[in-house]
From TrEMBL:
PANTHER family: PHENYLACETIC ACID REGULATOR-RELATED TRANSCRIPTIONAL REPRESSOR, TRANSCRIPTIONAL REPRESSOR PAAX. Residues 21-89 form the Transcriptional repressor PaaX-like N-terminal domain. This is Phenylacetic acid degradation operon negative regulatory protein PaaX. GO terms for biological process: DNA-templated transcription. Residues 193-282 form the Transcriptional repressor PaaX-like C-terminal domain. InterPro entries: PaaX-like_central, PaaX-like_N, PaaX_C, PaaX_trns_reg, WH-like_DNA-bd_sf, WH_DNA-bd_sf. Residues 108-179 form the Transcriptional repressor PaaX-like central Cas2-like domain.
Length: 307
């Protein structure tokens, strides 16, 4: 166990989940820590790395097998050892999700919207399209109309094409408005994106990690193992939040939006602990060639700059 009480509480909280989301944590670990070091590690070292979080060898092997079957990971045998890395598809999914995690701020909004009409789709196909576009930040402003104030048209088209719905879906793009966020629009946003529920999740994140931030700052010398455990749990919880967050422009959010404080807290903790966590990763993980490769310059651009 760690000497930091808030960190032990976070580990216990993760262990008490039913079921333990080991596969999700492994994806977090690959995205945050392994991919910057070349993306491939020996399974045995991965097992040892995650043991302090309470994930036993059997569960890790089961989770790795499932992630491989689902197309996230691929294995390479060298002698009797297995080395796992993200697949090309897994890396693309990781890039898309984690780009939001490490951004320093939400991009500026010009007041335009993307509208997607689902009236010509069958009920089953409509449900499928709606679920996929909601992951990209769309909300329902009417039973068959989805809207997003900030979307990538190429991503929308690719999603519709993948679902076989492009020919039967109508997509509009509006021009910028003089009044970006009227009272009526703010009310509509609260209804269509369930802002109150998301704010409650951000508030919980702050309550969980603010004591850790305070405890870390009080340490005369940070322990590499503690920093690694804190980092993986921090990014794991923050990533889960961002999967729910449509990343709406500031103009459409409440003035006291908890998401801003959560991002600042996550950035502050990460900047404080990343270097010591890197020491632990370099000592614990192995590749087929031995030690981990050094991280690239892009790693240090996370959260607006780590150095």
């Amino acid at each position: 166990m760690s000497s930091l009480t808030p960190l032990n509480q976070l580990i216990t909280r993760f262990q008490e989940q039913t079921p333990i989301r080991a596969s999700s944590l492994i994806i977090t670990l690959y995205g945050d820590a392994i991919e910057p070091h070349g993306g491939t590690v020996w399974l045995g070292s991965l097992i040892q790395l995650l043991e302090p979080i309470g994930i036993n060898e059997r569960l890790i092997r089961t989770s790795i097998f499932r992630l491989t079957k689902e197309g996230w990971l691929t294995a390479e045998k060298v002698g009797r050892r297995s080395y796992y890395s993200l697949t090309g598809a897994g890396r693309r999914r990781f890039d898309k999700a984690f780009k939001r995690v490490y951004s320093s701020s939400v991009p500026a909004w010009d007041g335009s919207w993307c509208l997607v009409m689902l009236t010509q789709l069958t009920q089953d196909k409509r449900k499928q399209v709606r679920e996929e576009l909601e992951w990209q930040g769309f909300g329902a402003i009417a039973p068959t109309v989805l809207a997003c104030p900030r979307s990538d048209r190429a991503d929308v088209n690719a999603t519709l094409l993948d679902l076989g719905a492009q020919e039967d879906t109508i997509v509009f793009e509006t021009t910028a408005q003089d009044v970006l966020a009227s009272k009526a629009l703010r009310v509509q946003v609260r209804e269509s994106w369930n802002i109150e529920e998301l704010a409650a999740h951000y508030s919980e994140f702050i309550q969980l990690f603010r004591p850790l931030w305070q405890a870390l700052r009080e340490q005369e010398q940070l322990q590499p193992s503690d920093c690694f455990l804190a980092r993986v749990l921090l990014i794991h919880e923050y990533r889960k939040l961002l999967l729910r967050d449509p990343q709406l422009p500031d103009e459409l959010l409440p003035g006291d939006w908890e998401g801003r404080a959560a991002r600042q807290l996550c950035r502050n903790i990460y900047r404080l602990i990343y270097a010591k966590a890197e020491e632990w990763l370099n000592s614990a993980l192995e590749t087929a060639d031995g030690p981990l490769p050094d991280v690239g310059e892009s790693f240090y651009r996370r959260f607006g700059g780590l150095k």
